[in-house]
Specification:
The protein has about 400 residues and is of the alpha/beta class. Bound molecules: iron/sulfur cluster and FE2/S2 (inorganic) cluster.
């Protein structure tokens, strides 16, 4: 059977492209093409141990994180250069004691702020304080629709119950809620129930994101990779729910691109629409960019402004545009549609971030990698390596029977 689930994208520019770039005439943002929204990874500390975490395998310690004053300076600078939205993420951003102060500062400089959280560290009072400080939106990650699977994937007991509690507080405080569900072989059977859970929690939006395989997820690929049948079933469930829940719940859906004909346009193209700032202040073209060895990333602690780093730094320019592309991308009609796929995935699977993403059917490695995924998906590996500061810990033998 063909592994291909999706048709290639139409040969037309994506109309959403323009939305991500601020085009105020004569502004700094126009000069530098600064993205509208930036991800601030405040810390790598996290009480959860998700085996698909997109943080690098080498996590940054608390002692090297940007200070409150440094983050405030970053937020002010972002607002000055035309950024409109800040997504506070991690790790777990609520592990930062100064989160309320940072949200207040974002609000003071006119940034719309979103909190991307596992929720388990929040109390109702702290969430209320965040709302009071100007927090605009909350996005809570769920690992399943009930505690047995969800707590096992998170590697933390009682996590699921806590998340449900915080989701209710979020709506009581009149904050908009997005439910973020990362899906893989060991929880895809719960997708229908997760959709119902999001409706019951009165979420505005549900992100159904299949795991993308680099960093911790690559380490755990054999335990996480779904079967082709699971993906076909999932696609049907999502499409039916999107129709049924129109006007009630918006559902975004990302399929694992191992099972697609063409790769995803990762980050909207390297250095085109997105950057994030790591806990220690590195300005990165994507949240997983540090998994690519041999690239040096400039820091907000250095001598350059963020706008300069975005426009001039070696790391952003290395894979920007199409000039860097090898064949088959260089002479491909889709090169300005998907920008050659994902650099992190190309590095993870081929050892060279400058290769065509093997998720593309035109990559010479595609066949081999798809077969490997198929073999892993039908294999019996289900034990996780949990994400943590000691380089990962194998799931205890008895955990899967919990
Ligand atoms: Fe995209 Fe390159 Fe594949 Fe063409 S060959 S579809 S540009 S990844
Ligand atoms: Fe880094 Fe795709 S995740 S470019």
């Amino acid at each position: 059977m063909s592994p291909i689930l999706t048709d290639p994208p139409p040969l037309a520019a994506d109309p959403s492209d323009g939305v991500a770039i601020l085009e105020q005439r004569g502004s700094t943002a126009e000069t530098f093409g600064i993205p509208l929204a930036v991800l601030a990874e405040l810390t790598h500390r996290c009480p959860l141990q998700c085996p698909y975490c997109s943080n690098p395998l080498e996590l940054e310690r608390a002692s090297s994180e940007l200070t409150t004053a440094e983050w405030k300076k970053v937020l002010s600078e972002l607002a000055e250069i035309g950024v409109l939205q800040i997504h506070f993420s991690g790790g777990e951003p609520t592990a930062r004691k100064d989160l309320v102060e940072l949200v207040q500062h974002a609000s003071d400089v006119g940034l719309y702020s979103n909190l991307i959280t596992s929720a388990v560290l929040l109390t109702r009072d702290r969430l209320a304080a965040l709302a009071e400080a100007g927090l605009c939106h909350v996005q809570i990650s769920f690992q399943g629709n009930e505690p047995v699977v969800a707590d096992r994937v998170a590697g933390l007991k009682d996590a699921h119950r806590k998340k449900i509690e915080v989701a209710h507080w979020t709506r009581e405080l009149d904050l908009p809620l997005t439910v973020n569900a990362v899906m893989h072989r060991q929880n895809l059977h719960q997708l229908g129930d997760i959709i119902e859970m999001a409706v019951e929690l009165d979420a505005d939006r549900l992100e159904v994101a299949n795991v993308q395989y680099y960093g911790w997820a690559l380490k755990n690929r054999a335990a996480l990779m779904p079967t082709l049948q699971q993906i076909e079933d999932t696609t049907a469930i999502v499409e039916a729910a999107q129709k049924r829940l129109k006007g009630i719940l918006a559902i975004d859906y990302v399929i694992p691109d191992y099972y697609a004909l063409r790769p995803k346009k990762c980050m909207g193209g390297w250095g085109r629409q997105f950057f994030n700032i790591s806990p220690t202040g590195k300005v990165l073209p994507c949240h997983a960019a540090e998994t690519i060895t041999g690239l040096d990333f400039e820091s907000v602690r250095g001598n350059h402004s963020i706008a300069w780093i975005w426009q001039n730094s070696e790391a952003f320019n290395r894979y920007r545009g199409t000039g860097w592309m090898p064949e088959p991308c260089q002479s491909c009609d889709y090169k300005e549609i998907d920008f050659g796929g994902c650099r992190c995935q190309a590095f993870a699977l081929t050892g060279d971030a400058g290769n065509t993403d093997p998720a593309c059917a035109l990559s010479p490695l595609h066949e081999q990698i798809f077969k490997l995924a198929e073999t892993e998906a039908s294999g019996d590996t289900s034990r996780f390596i949990y994400r943590n500061f000691s380089g990962g810990t194998p799931e205890p033998d008895d955990a899967q029977d919990a």
